[in-house]
Design goal:
Blueprint lengths: L11 E3 L2 E3 L3 E3 L16 H12 L4 E4 L28 H16 L3 E6 L5 E5 L5 E5 L22 H20 L4 E6 L5 H6 L15 H4 L1 H14 L4 E7 L9 H11 L5 E5 L19 H8 L6 E5 L5 H9 L5 E4 L1 H5 L3 H6 L13
Parallel strand pairs: 3-4, 3-12, 4-5, 5-8, 8-9, 9-10, 10-11, 11-12
Antiparallel strand pairs: 1-2, 6-7
Helix pairs in contact: 3-6
């Protein structure tokens, strides 16, 4: 029987891999499925495996891997996106390996999320000693300048280079655990890479400083190079990237300039909005997928990576049409699988009329 969504359900090559369709499961999970465990709890495992089993070709496993077992205040961390897993704990690693193998068993890929909740980075030096690099110059919490505040010269250039290396070391850990990819958070000025990319939050006066796009991108390029050297070409690198920023931030053209610098290192660019809240469309949005055209403009540049987009892709007709028109290569979804754990099955079986509508809450 001819598929109702031939483009959305068509395989695509990414690096050395072939994704079984164009659907990504972006980092998220239902609230309260994870308890105080520092490893994936059974409901969390069941949810992610369910996404892969019902059709997600690429599953991003949310998780914080830099807290070393130190609890993050629950009023600050969004536990449904970034639970506090201790990735350096052998018990947690065992659960992660089991989950990754189960995801592989249904023909899907697993990606580990590189997101620093504490912004205290674990770096192993040349002597094998572990250092803790603190990038909290602006103070913890979500600041008015961005989700993580600004970053100035209080974080030394030497420490930034160590943080870049720490990203490579964490990616290598994910590779040892069997992951196929890493997904790096570079959106909304929430993390060190995106804080430095943005004129709104980059307060530095050195070679990583705010005076030119090349300087602002220096850390991100260094970080991506460290990751690529650590994992080789047999692991995918995805970045979650704000295509444009609010007034005073980088422009779309400057964003393209950044992406050209990142092109040698990345396999997938997941295009996101200027701000975190906007990236999760609510029922009052005039456009069902408000950031599709940003992704389409990037796709039109013909850069050597797959272009993905997130935000409002519950309707498979919209996703299939966007891919057919060459605006996207992939769509990333989260609430689709929360509202319908069998979301992919409904598409493959041409039963989308049976889907429970997502309220975009």
């Amino acid at each position: 029987m001819k598929s109702a969504y031939p483009h959305l359900l068509q395989p695509v090559k990414a690096g050395k891999f072939v994704l079984k369709n164009r659907m990504q499961s972006s980092n998220s999970m239902p609230h309260f499925s994870q308890g105080p465990e520092e490893y994936p709890a059974d409901p969390t495992i069941a949810h992610f495996l369910g996404r892969a089993r019902s059709g997600a070709a690429f599953v991003t496993l949310c998780g914080v891997d830099d807290n070393y077992g130190m609890p993050t205040p629950p009023d600050w961390l969004d536990i449904s996106h970034f639970p506090d897993f201790d990735m350096f704990n052998a018990k947690c690693q065992n659960y992660m390996i089991e989950l990754v193998e189960a995801i592989h068993g249904v023909g899907s890929l697993a990606s580990g999320s590189l997101f620093s909740a504490s912004r205290i980075y674990r770096y192993v030096n040349e002597k094998g000693e572990t250092e803790s690099i603190d990038a909290n110059e602006a103070g913890p919490g979500f600041g008015s300048e961005g989700m993580g505040g600004s970053i100035g010269d209080g974080v030394s250039a030497e420490d930034l280079r160590k943080i870049a290396k720490s990203y490579g070391q964490r990616a290598a850990l994910y590779k040892r655990l069997g992951f196929d990819a890493v997904t790096i958070h570079m959106s909304y000025r929430a993390q060190v890479p995106s804080q430095l990319l943005s004129p709104l939050t980059n307060r530095r006066t050195d070679e990583f400083g705010a005076d030119t796009p090349e300087n602002r991108a220096r850390f991100a390029v260094l970080m991506l190079r460290e990751i690529r050297e650590a994992v080789g070409r047999d692991m995918l690198i995805e970045i979650q990237f704000s295509a444009i920023e609010p007034e005073g931030g980088y422009t779309f053209e400057e964003g393209l300039q950044y992406l050209r610098m990142f092109e040698p290192y990345v396999d997938i660019v997941q295009v996101r909005s200027p701000e975190g809240d906007e990236n999760h469309p609510i029922p009052f949005e005039l456009e069902p997928t408000p950031f599709l055209e940003l992704a389409a403009r990037i796709k039109a540049e013909g850069l050597d990576f797959l272009v993905s987009n997130v935000g409002g892709y519950f309707d498979p007709d919209i996703a299939d049409r966007a891919i057919a028109e060459g605006k996207l290569d992939l769509v990333a979804m989260a609430r689709a699988w929360i509202s319908n754990p069998n979301y992919g099955d409904l598409l493959y079986e041409d039963r989308f009329d049976d889907a429970v509508p997502c309220l975009r809450c």
